[in-house]
Please model this.
Amino acid sequence: MRVAVLGTGVVGRAIAGKLSELGHEVVVGTRDPNETLARQEPDYMGNPPFAAWLAEHPQVRLAGLADAAAHGELVVNATAGGASLEALRLAGAANLDGKVLVDVANPLDFSQGMPPSLSVVNTDCLGECIQREFPAARVVKTLNTVNAMVMVDPGLVGGGDHTVFVSGNDPEAKALVTGLLTDGFGWRDVVDLGDITTARGPEMFMALWLRLMGSLQTPMLNIKVVR
Amino acid sequence: MRVAVLGTGVVGRAIAGKLSELGHEVVVGTRDPNETLARQEPDYMGNPPFAAWLAEHPQVRLAGLADAAAHGELVVNATAGGASLEALRLAGAANLDGKVLVDVANPLDFSQGMPPSLSVVNTDCLGECIQREFPAARVVKTLNTVNAMVMVDPGLVGGGDHTVFVSGNDPEAKALVTGLLTDGFGWRDVVDLGDITTARGPEMFMALWLRLMGSLQTPMLNIKVVR
Model:
């Protein structure tokens, strides 16, 4: 499948790398490819520059946001949540129409200090904002409840015995994404929460995830829904 | 131990009943005991009137909020989250000072439709509001992430292999509450999230819990933190 992954951070890299490894034709989208490739310093988190990552993933191509989105039959929003709507506008509605748009972002707001709060919350969420602004895209919210490594390798935590969620208005889109999560990434428990408004649940879970990370002193954690 | 349980709904009944069964001297507090005892109809959820419950729990006494709080060495806030601050004001700061105040309420807001949203959220939470207004109380937030039956009998879900959280500023108060949760109620995994501001996590988890209940069609569920 032709896939666009928008975003060049740890999340975009993890998903692009895994999808490429699975045989998909992956183009990573960024606002300014030349600027992204010119960076030579690690980012503020200590991650190596994108060019170094790209050199190790020769099957992956870097392009502008619109070019990448045009390439993808499936588009993954792996941009920072606070910048996602702007990035998707640059990707262009025409390049998203009718496509499965997998939103894995969290609308984190660092302006109130650490841990971050959410910039959209409670009676709205980022997944809904995206679906409202791009009504012809088939938005599926998923994977935002775990860190980048766990997203594509759930076995890294507790042998993979834990849960991931999907929310979206389009049952076929959710089925396709669920197939990628199980057959591609190795998730064993995928709970379909319902329509895109249910993404408020996993997005607001971020508040608990951040405190769990603080208390347990590791981001290598997840929740299993016991029933 | 002398315990006050504020609130006569299903949560108050579950906790009062269990603590009484464990041998504690339990007084349930309500705004107007005569009015509470006079009710003869089931509530809107179909629960029998409080008087019927009380008749089956002769060790438990019903009193006004202030009388109950004065009795308790430990006070449990099991009122509806939207009414908790007012109920605690009626209980009286002097009757709460220095005491462990276990807050199990969720600030659910039904005014925006179902599922409810939260009336305090994101950069504040009910647990913090209570601690701010009653600075001499030793507030511990816990148990708000599961339904009333599971609170006092975690084995009802998945053999009890799941997690509950405590948040609070007072380590001794958290240790006492953790002991009640483990030795009294049978919880096996209690995660201390940190100070009372960390209660934002479990309170915001309610958004996910409500959608899980909707998707799985049962309130008999919980999460296990896998790490």
